[in-house]
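Bit of a strange request maybe. I'm writing a small parser for C-alpha cell strings and I need a real example to test against, not something I typed by hand. Could someone generate the C-alpha cells for this chain?
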Amino acid sequence: MDGCSVSMEDFLEKIYETVERKGYARVADLAAQLRLKPPTVTRMVQKLGDRGLVHYERYRGLTLTPRGTAVGRFLSERHAVLEEFLRLLGCADPATVYRDVEGIEHHLSPDTLACVRRFVAFARQNPEWVAAYRRSSVDQDQAAASPVSQPWG
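Reply from user aminoacidic:
Good idea to test on real output. This should exercise your parser:
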C-alpha cells in the first residue's frame, strides 16, 4: 500500500487506531502495543514522517497527516473486513482470527480485497444465508468426525 513495507503498514494501522481511540498517540503507546522498544518505534515514526504520513515532535507525540489518516483508515478497515470474513467462515477463536488476518492482510491484491468486501456485504444483507452456511458446516464437521465417513474406516 502506497509503497509502504509490511512493518510501516502495521505501525500506521496502530497509530490510526490509537488516535481514533485517544485523540493522539505517543511513542510509548505504540511501543507497548507493538511490543517494541521506544527507539525502534521512534525510527519508524520518523520514516513515516519522511513519507508525509505523520507529524512527529520529540517528547510531544504524533498525529497523522490527512494522507496518513486516509491510509490508516484503509488499513484498519481492511483488517476489520478480513476479521469479519474469517468469522463468517466459522473461525471462532479471536487469537487465531487475529493471527491469520495479520498473516494475509498485506498480501491481498486490491481485486481480491474487493471480492472479500462484496462477500461480507452480501453476508450482512443475507443473515439467513449465513445461518444456513453455519448449519451446513456443523453437519459437515459431524460427518467428518464419524468413523463411517473416514476412507480408511
